[in-house]
């Protein structure tokens, strides 16, 4: 629609690059001999960054960015993004969050690894909030993706065949926080019952508000979702299951009692944690 040259390939990157170079840019000018053949490459999430195809694409493109980043860049300036990542629980949290937002009267859509592809949802428009399930594969190829809300659930070893090491996998997950909007718009929800995520909570706690930028809400403690992190973090924000079984979200010093865990219709502490994250 914008006059861009779009090419698709699964192995012949060099041939595509040669064709793009001979085609010139949208103004009709021929690219410089040393210029990348493509302005932007969007790798499939299934292609690991150390694969020959990915390496070849990186050499042929000025930039590689995942589909979620491309969609975020193309979305309306007044739209909002909530990004949910973690080893387990993403789909449940995204489904619940999108439902709650719709019940509140917002045009919310579940996108990413659940529901519509992000770019298809953005093209369709008519959405106030994109609630995106984002994988480590997708986050690894982001650079500017700046959601308004980031939910970081548990991080345990997974997809190591793609990332190579657990550290690379962890760092990809943590990229969901890299460009989070500043408070009051930017909020991170962090599962402090998970060892890896709790380490990130400690890192954020050590930063002053100006350096950190966004607000953060720790869920639970090392003892589980029944723990209140406010005293330990020196924060007014936390989410936890109270002694009477109530799901509580504390924001800016005010406690909001949502429901009792036994009223959720699904059992288990992990589902109570998912409900807290969605809220």
List descriptors.
279 residues; alpha/beta; UDP-N-acetylmuramoyl-L-alanine:D-glutamate ligase; 2 domains; six-stranded parallel beta sheet; three-stranded antiparallel beta sheet; 9 strands; 17% strand; globular
Structure characterization notes:
The protein has 279 residues and is of the alpha/beta class. It has two domains: 54 residues, no CATH class; 212 residues, Mur-like, catalytic domain (UDP-N-acetylmuramoyl-L-alanine:D-glutamate ligase). 34% of the residues lie in helices and 17% in strands. It contains twelve helices and nine strands. A six-stranded parallel sheet has the order 2-3-1-4-5-6, sandwiched between helices. Strand 2, helix 5 and strand 3 form a beta-alpha-beta unit. Helix 4 packs across helix 12. The radius of gyration is 21 Å and the shape is globular. The mean pLDDT is 87. This is UDP-N-acetylmuramoyl-L-alanine--D-glutamate ligase. GO terms for molecular function: ATP binding; UDP-N-acetylmuramoylalanine-D-glutamate ligase activity. It comes from Gordonibacter massiliensis (ex Traore et al. 2017).
């Amino acid at each position: 629609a914008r006059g861009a040259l779009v090419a698709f390939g699964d192995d012949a990157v060099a041939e595509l690059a040669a064709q793009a170079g001979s085609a010139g840019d949208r103004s009709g000018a021929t690219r410089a001999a040393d210029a990348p053949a493509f302005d932007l490459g969007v790798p499939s999430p299934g292609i690991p960054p150390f694969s020959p195809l990915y390496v070849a694409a990186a050499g042929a493109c000025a930039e590689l960015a995942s589909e979620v980043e491309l969609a975020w860049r193309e979305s309306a300036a007044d739209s909002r993004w909530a990004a949910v990542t973690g080893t387990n629980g993403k789909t449940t949290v995204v489904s619940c969050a999108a439902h709650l937002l719709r019940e509140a009267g917002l045009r919310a859509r579940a996108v990413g690894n659940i529901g519509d592809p992000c770019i298809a949802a953005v093209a369709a428009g008519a959405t106030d909030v994109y609630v995106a399930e984002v994988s480590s594969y997708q986050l690894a190829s982001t650079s500017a993706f700046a959601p308004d809300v980031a939910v970081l659930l548990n991080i345990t070893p997974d997809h190591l065949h793609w990332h190579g090491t657990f550290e690379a996998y962890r760092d990809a997950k943590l990229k969901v926080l890299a460009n989070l909007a500043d408070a009051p718009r930017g909020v991170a929800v962090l599962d402090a019952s998970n060892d890896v995520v709790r380490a990130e909570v400690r890192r954020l706690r050590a930063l002053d508000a100006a350096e950190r930028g966004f607000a953060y809400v720790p869920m639970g403690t090392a003892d589980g979702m029944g723990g209140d992190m406010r005293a330990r973090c020196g924060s007014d924000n936390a989410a936890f299951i109270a002694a009477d079984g109530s799901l509580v979200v504390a924001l800016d010093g005010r406690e909001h009692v949502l429901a009792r865990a036994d009223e959720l219709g699904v059992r288990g502490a992990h589902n109570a944690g998912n409900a807290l994250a969605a809220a």
